[in-house]
Amino acid sequence: MPAKMIAREHWSKIGFLMAAIGSAVGLGNIWRFPYMVGSNGGGAFLIPYLIAVIAFGIPLMMMELDAGRRFKGSVVTTLKQINRKVWPLGVLAPIVSLSILSYYLVISGWTLGYFVFSITGYMEFSEFTNSLLPFFYFVITLAITAYIVSKGVKRGIETASMILMPILFIVLVALAVYALYLPGAAEGLAFYLTPDFSYLTDPNIWLMSISQAFFSLSVGYGILITYGSHLSKNTRIGRSVLGIAGADTLIAFIGGLIVFPIVFSFGLNPAEGTELSFIALPKVFSIMPFGMLIGFLFFFLLFTAALTSSISMLELGAANFIDELKWSRRKAVAFLSAIIFVVGIPSALSFYGSGVSFMGEPFIDFMDNSLGTLLMLSSALLCIAVIWFFRPAVFDVRNRILQKIRASSIMIFLLKYVIPIILFILFVIELLSGGGN
Question: Which of 193, 292, 310, 327 is most buried as measured by Cβ atoms within 10 A of its Cβ?
C-alpha cells in the first residue's frame, strides 16, 4: 500500500522559483566556482561546465522535481511509492545532506563573522578560527536556518527566499559592476573568458566540471524531490528547471566577474579557495577604494547564498520526519537542529586550541572530503532507484520540452545509463584520492 497522502502547502509560482534558485545558489557559486575555474584552465573550464549543466544537471533536476510533484512526499515517501524495495536508499540522501549541513553551517558562520568584521575591522583568519567565535557564529546560523524552516513552506522558506534572492542578485550585480572598473580588470576577464583549448584534452577537467555542476545545482540530495512535492499539478516542470538552472549558472558566472577582476587587480592567486575569501580578500578590502562597503556587500552576499542553501538542506531532513513519523514541523526541526548542533561541534572547533582532528586532518576537512565522496554515491543510487524501479517513462518529461528532437528519449537514456555511470566514476575517483580534489 502506498504511504498515506497528507495535505501539503503549495508554493506560489514565483515563490517556488525563488526557493529552488536559492537552494541551488550557495557558496558553490560564489566561492567554489571561481576557485574551480581558476585551478582548471580559466575560461576552458566554462565549456565542459555548461555541457555538464545541460546534459546531466537538467535531466536530474527534471527527474527529482517531477517525482516529488507526482508522489507528493519526501525522499523516503517517494521511493516507497515507486517501489517499496528501494525505499532504504532514500534514507541515505537526508543522512548525507544533514551531515553536510553540520559543517556547511560552520563555513556559513565564517561568512557571517566576516560580514561583522567588515564593519568592526578584520581579524586574521588563523586568529578567528583559533577562537570560540566560529562556534558562536555556527550556533547563530543554525538558529536562523531552523527558525525559517520551522515557519513552514509558505510563511518560512518562500517568504525568506522572496526577500533574500532579489537582494542577493542586486548585490551581485553591483559588485560585478564595481569590479569591472578596477585597474587590471581586463587581465582578469581575459583569464576568465578566454579558453585555453589544450585543457579540454585533460579528462580531469571534465570530471571536475560535472562534479561542480552537481554540487552547484543541488541535484542528487533529494532536495528537489522535497521541493517538488509542494508543486501544483499544472506546474510546468521543464520551464521551471530551465529557469532554475539558468539563474544558478548566471549567478555563478557573475560571481566570476567579481572575483577575477579583483584577483588580477591586486595580484592574487586565482586558484586559492578558503585563503582567497578569508585571508587575501579581507586584506584587499582594507586598502581598495570603498573597500569597507565592498567587503560588507561581499560577505553579505556569501552569507545570503549560504543561508538559502542551508534552509533547503534542513527542509529535506524535516520533510522525512513530518511525512514518515507524522511529527509536527516544529518538533522535526527542533530534533534535527539538536542533532546537527552536536555533530557540528567538532567542525566548529576544528582549529580551536590544539584543534579537533580525525585521521590526521582537521575534522571539518575530513567531513568535507568524506561526505563529498558519499554525495556522489547517494546521487547515483537515488537516480537508479527512481529511474530503474519506476517503469513508465520519466514522468511527464516527454510533454515538457523539445519534443521535436525526442528530448524525452535522450533524457531517459542519460538518466538510466550515462549519469549513474559518471557518478560512480566520480565516486571511485574521489574514494581513491581520499576525497580530495
Answer: 310
Q: Which amino acid is at 152?
A: G
Any idea how long the chain is?
437
Q: Residues near 399 by Cβ (< 8 Å), separated by ≥ 6?
A: none
Instruction: Tell me the torsion sign for CA atoms 347, 353, 356, 361.
Output: positive
Q: How far is CA 90 from the centre of its chain?
A: 19
Neighbours of 420 (CB within 10 A): 19
403 CB-contact burial (10 Å; exposed 0-12 / middle 13-18 / buried 19+): exposed
Distance CA 151, CA 131 (A): 33
Fill in the amino acid letter for 160: A
CB 50: neighbour CB atoms within 10 A?
Answer: 15
Radius of gyration of the chain measured on its C-alpha atoms: 21
- For the chain, counts of helices (H) and of strands (E): 21, 2
Instruction: Read off the pTM.
Output: 0.90
Amino acid (one-letter) located at 141: T
Contact criterion met (CB below 8 Å) for 92 and 75: no
For the CA atoms of 367, 370, 375, 381, the dihedral, rounded to the nearest 10 degrees, stands at -140
**Cα distance between residue 83 and residue 251, in whole Å:** 37
pLDDT along the chain (437 residues), means of 10: 60 94 90 85 90 90 88 90 84 89 96 96 93 97 98 95 96 95 92 88 86 84 91 84 94 93 88 78 90 95 95 96 94 98 96 85 87 74 79 49 54 83 82 62
3-class DSSP state of 278: helix
Cell of residue 317, nine digits: 531532513
Distances (CA, A) of 74 to 201, 312, 358, 392: 41, 12, 33, 20
- Segments in 151-236 forming alpha helices (H): 159-180, 185-193, 203-217, 223-228
Burial degree of 318 (CB within 10 A; 0-12, 13-18, 19+): buried
**Domains delineated in the chain:** 13-432 (1.10.4160.10)
In contact, 307 and 145? CB cutoff 8 Å: yes
**Distance separating alpha carbons of residues 270 and 257, to the nearest angstrom:** 12
Q: What integer pLDDT is reported at residue 403 of this predicted model?
A: 45
Residues 6+ apart with CB under 8 A from 113: 128, 133, 134, 137
